[in-house]
Amino acid sequence: MAGANTRIATPEQAVARIAYLASDVVVSVQPSLASDSEFSTHLKQLASRKEPSLVANASDSIPEIQSVRHNADPLLSVFTPIRSGRLVSVTTTSSILLPSVAHLYKLASFPVVIHVALAPKNSPDYTAITSIRNTGWTFLQSWSLQESQDIALTAHALAIHSGKGVIHFFDPSSGAGAESIEAADADVVRAILNLDNVRRFQSGPISGSEIYVNDGRVVLASEQPEPLAGGVQASSNASEVEVEASTITSQSSVKSSQESVTSSPPSVSTATTIEANASVLTSDNIYKYVTSIWAKLSELVGRQYNPFEWIGSTKAENTVFLFGSDVALISNTIANAKSADAFADAGLIVPRLYRPWLGAKLIEALPKSVKRVAVLEQVSRRTTKWGPILIDVLTSVKSAVGGVETIVGYQLGYITKDTVKPALSTVFQNLTLEKPVQNLEIGEREAPQEASGYDLVKPKLESSYTKILDQLFGSRAFIANSLDSDNAGISSTISATPEYGFGSLLARKEKKQKFIAEVQEAASSGTFLTEAPKRALAKWLSIANDAKKSEEVAEDVVSKLSLDNSRLSKTFLQNKAFLRKQSLWLVGSDAWAYDLGNSGVHHVLASGENVNMLIIDSTPYSERAAADANRRKKDIGLYAMNFGNAYVASTAVYSSYTQVLQAMDEADKFNGPSIVLAYLPYFGEHESPLTVLTETKRAVDLGYWPLYRWNPENENKGKPNFSLDSERIKKELKEFLDRDNQLTQLMRKDPHFGAALAQDFGTEVRAQQKRKAKDAYNQLLEGLFGAPLTILFGSDGGNAQSLAKRLGTRGRARGLKTTVMALDEYPVEDLATEENVVIITSTAGQGEFPVNGMSFWHAVKDSTELDLASVRYSIFGLGDSHYWPRKEDKVYYNKPAKDLDRVLANFGATRLADLGLGDDQDPDGYQTGYSEWEPKLWEALGVANVDGLPDEPPPITNEDIKIASNFLRGTIAEDLLDESTGAISASNAQLTKFHGTYMQDDRDVRDERKAQGLEPAYSFMIRCRLPGGVSTAKQWIQMDDIANELGNETMKLTTRQTFQFHGIIKKKLKPAMQAINRALMDTLAACGDVNRNVMCSPLPSQSVYHREVYASSVKISEHLLPSTSAYHEIWLTDDNNKKTQVGGNAVQDFEPLYGPTYLPRKFKISIAIPPHNDVDVYAHDIGLIAIKGSDGHLVGYNMTVGGGMGTTHNNKKTYPQTGRMLGFVKTPDVHIACEKVMLVQRDHGNRKDRKNARLKYTVDRLGVEDFKAKVEELWGQKFESAKPFHFDSNVDTFGWIKDETGLNHFTFFIENGRIEDTADFQMKTGLREIAKIHKGEFRLTPNQHLILSNVKDEDLPALKKLMAQYKLDNLHFSALRLSSSACVAFPTCGLAMAESERYLPVLISKLEACIEENGLRQDSIVMRMTGCPNGCARPWLAEVAFVGKAYGAYNMYLGGGYHGQRLNKLYRSSIKEDEILEIMKGLLSRYAKEREQGERFGDWTIRAGIIKATTDGQNFHDGVAEEDEEEEEA
Ligand code: SF4
């Protein structure tokens, strides 16, 4: 524990440290969650050093720091922990005290300590303290750095000792400039706190939580008598204490409020106390406790403290009684007074213990010589004639027998070193007058401006909703409680509350009525100079309440009034805002407009007024369970719906942007109160959008935050009031709907909701399912003989699962009773009853368990009672010893298997066979280790030598699936009809790829759904076939409709120049396919082991030439299409399986090109038009380089073969490769040449190993010449020699360009191809608006951007206007960002190991400052990222690339060629953001300094010796910068 050596520099630091040491929970009140308070920085430092609390039950526990915004009702957070027996303290400024007065009354009876830094900082106002003096707390104050530490400690000791609340207040600037002090020694702190009392409190949580009774703790000291200062014995007799109390309270009322009990105030403590025997504390008790604490402190540290501190001569006749912060200034001035000064020889007395007020002690502290007392009160907002301190002093001193003759009150303002003397002179001159003037003001009234505590700030994130209001209603939107509204004289804390806003709205509505009345009068008899205003106003009156019409007319009225120039016109113009129907909004938000207790909602509902309320809820889903019960939100939506008269919507902008628009629009139109609940979960104001997004998705997906709209007006139109816009709802809402009969209506309308609705949120369904499944299986096994063998697996990729299943089959063949199931499906409590258990598990991420083994592992690991003495077991693990190459990361290799092996042994289980480890690096991969392990297992089970074992069926491969599929039919059609699951079978999932769709599941919610016992959130990705990426404007709108109505409201423009939709659920899959077909596109062969979408450079600069080349891409694509009719049969027939919707192609069940097994692997073709290599022509199975003839027209293509990107981490047999040149082909022959290359691959590609099946491996195996010969043989023609060409880049050129025909083209920057709307950027809407008027076409680029093509000059202005309106013309990005590209990865891609599309933009933002610093903003560096080594964004050709290795970790590659001509090479493995930034910053600054003229980053990294060049894919793994450490040592 930091002790004597730590130095303390400020009072806040001293106080924060003591609060930290003496509490279980510290509630840190902060300006906002993102900005620290003067206390919280120190609290966080202590917590980050893991300093233990001295009062915690466990010796190493650190206290919990709860950060609460100052305007979020902070003291509410104290109740739950203090009632559960945890010591709580609060660090805050004084600004929260008055608004918290109701809590203060209740909390006074608990040993809570509130440390208050008085505000404003340089001239604190003590009104905050005097106003709460009667709330029943003990008040202590300190005036210096040293005192702040000692009195803070006293406050905690006193709270613990007395069981009552203590407020310690101080002026934070009082320690300014003082020398630092030593931190209190931990032993001293312990001794003062008295840990026995602490334990007594902690051991007895306080039952019940009545808020209207005095439910606090009673005095702790009465339970344990102990010697007090001076040897006085504390009273241990409760009744004696009570007698004392009642004696005093029976005295005069003035006295009872001042010198009575310090327990709860009279209003609650006597009338409503339910504990008959509750003892109460007298002021004497407090005095005794505090003096005993001070006596001990004095003994230990030598400093003395008293309830009243006297400073000055004991012979003084005149004295100041100061209640303010300038103690040192005044006492020094008096001490240094000259004899002529009016204040010479005066004294100074200050109250250290302010409440309870001990009048008798004041008299004791005053020397007998004192005749006159000047009471200086530093209170700026006095509400009574006499200051509260003056009354305290008067009643105490006057009634005492003594020599004080005169007591005069002063109001103390701001004084400084320069003004203190004249101020004191005035005080004393007046004091010694015969008739002194009362209430004189001393010092300046106004201190120099300083922040008055905490300022309100609207968090940036929360503006996403208010921006939508702006967007929807424009100038009609009026937020009554917005922070920038002008409310003279009202503090922003108050004017930002919805309650205040509501009042001002009502006033505004009254004004509008008045305005209408005035208009009515003016329209008939007003005195205008012209006639026009009258007519205009009369017209306006007739439509005044219609938002749309009044908007249209308003401008006209304004112009008529402006021209008129009469006085009446001018008056109306001053109020012209009333001419438009305003959309009136109140905002309730956690951060800037705290709707205390939802009273704003209540007011709005009860009023029935046409007012809209937007309530932003920012509690993250993952925190909701941990949230303090008292702070948990009530369900406002339910509350409002129960009211019956209101429009209610529950929305989440990060889940459905269009639903928010719809809800706000409906709320605006609804004639009555509307409540729009808006979800925006975040932990701090600067939260990354990714966290907000994933938290939102979890909450919506699991029904915690359902999306719905409730419109009571619908009933009149015969429609249901309730519309559910998400899939699941929570139990409470379901009950409400049940009651309201809405659910029945909803289910009738949409029966598929039945399953989701019937399954209550948070039930124990899953546990029951597990038990049932296992019992059923056990029953099945009964009757079989042989030893039981339970095989459990944890598997992400499927290998462990197949091994387990095969082991099960082999076990059964050996006569064993085998059960095979996933780890997480197994009830852990049964483990002890098993005889033989085998576990096969793979390794995920950084040595983690696979998803379906995670909860099993946690249950086993955390178990305290598993006894496995009678269990025999063996574990086999699958891992990769080189996955984490650094020495310190070796522990991750097969970690789950090793951990399980150790833990089961610890629980007493016996090993059947030693732990087996499968390593991907072994010659046969994991099979090597497995084939050693399995025989040992049979040996141990006594079934090693069994005769007549049947032959095992070979494993089912993709090739088998293709053959059995009947030309890609499988049972897809049947699967689509099965409503019991959102999934399709595994083999159909393989087949649907050939139809252009992949089954995926939302990985953001995978774990959460699993925990709820739900299947993954399955949905489908659909990829269109769009050769060359050319789409009409009409098709764009059709694609946009599909995304909105059937997908997840976004589209992805892919690296293969096509549209991709995500989040299409099974029942919408067929409608989506049909909609795509109606748009004259299809999805056939967009994925699968066939030729994929054929790419073509979009070439906006030469449209005529582009047309010629593009025609080849369409021709090749059509020529190589599969012929199966399954596609039409499955997707394009109606539900009666009859009508073929759009036929088109001739159909036959015969594949002339592909045959029944199609290709061994996917096959990709791209066409580049030099000098642009934007398609990355070398990255494809076939690369075609267009060659222009001397007449400017296309003559043919140079053809390369065997390029490809996909690899597997650490598998050196896999590598990326660039295409090798075969030669030149004339344009009319090119589709045939492509076909022949494809056929050679069909027949010679490796069908045994999918990891070695791409054309690149075939070409390398056969050699380029041999391969070429095979193609030529099939083709019957020879390739000509390749023609010369030149490439200069592989990135896009943004902005406007004019082609050779005079048509215009604009390349938009679409970051990573994602077309979506956000509150800040309505890109998707903007592009749709553009498509509505665009007469040309759109071209999708291979870098995932978009070109608006073929715009005539005359159409430019309208398009440019829309582009500017939607900010689509913005190209002010760094060249690094413009040259970047990322694949989709999380949340939809099943192969993703790390984020990509959602993370690369964030990473680039973090690099941009460094880019600027080094003057590289305009320098294009090709940077790419993918979530896995499959390489969808072609990372291996980038100058710098990051490829996902595990969540948050990437392999880094350097040295790619700028125009895609050279592969890069591994530079670092598994690095995380910190390292990435550090490395990149170093490289960028070196590159800026060292590069030669025109030298590209990738070339420089090679010249500078940072990385070796990869000259061929086959040396991709050689000479990497970071060799495996083990190999280096070998
Ligand atoms: S590169 Fe990997 S993670 Fe990225 S989209 Fe392709 S398969 Fe998914």
UniProtKB/TrEMBL annotation:
The protein's required cofactors: [4Fe-4S] cluster; siroheme
Stretches assigned to the Flavodoxin-like domain: 789-938
InterPro entries: CysI, Flavdoxin-like, Flavodoxin/NO_synth, Flavoprotein-like_sf, NiRdtase/SiRdtase_haem-b_fer, Nit/Sulf_reduc_fer-like_dom_sf, NO2/SO3_Rdtase_4Fe4S_dom, NO2/SO3_Rdtase_4Fe4S_prot
Pathway stated in the Swiss-Prot or TrEMBL entry: Sulfur metabolism; hydrogen sulfide biosynthesis; hydrogen sulfide from sulfite (NADPH route): step 1/1
Segments of this protein annotated with the region Disordered: 246-269
Keywords recorded for this protein, A-Z: 4Fe-4S, Amino-acid biosynthesis, Cysteine biosynthesis, Cytoplasm, Heme, Iron, Iron-sulfur, Metal-binding, NADP, Oxidoreductase
Presence of keyword Amino-acid biosynthesis: yes
Coiled-coil positions: none
UniProt-annotated location(s): Cytoplasm
GO biological process: cysteine biosynthetic process; sulfate assimilation
UniProt KW Hydrolase keyword: no
E.C. number(s) listed in UniProt: 1.8.1.2
Entry GO MF terms: 4 iron, 4 sulfur cluster binding; FMN binding; heme binding; metal ion binding; NADP binding; sulfite reductase (ferredoxin) activity; sulfite reductase (NADPH) activity
GO cellular component: cytoplasm; sulfite reductase complex (NADPH)
Cited function: Catalyzes the reduction of sulfite to sulfide, one of several activities required for the biosynthesis of L-cysteine from sulfate.
Binding partners and assembly: Alpha(2)-beta(2). The alpha component is a flavoprotein, the beta component is a hemoprotein.
HAMAP family: CysI
Record-stated family: Belongs to the nitrite and sulfite reductase 4Fe-4S domain family.
Protein name as catalogued: Sulfite reductase [NADPH] subunit beta
Species, as recorded: Podospora fimiseda
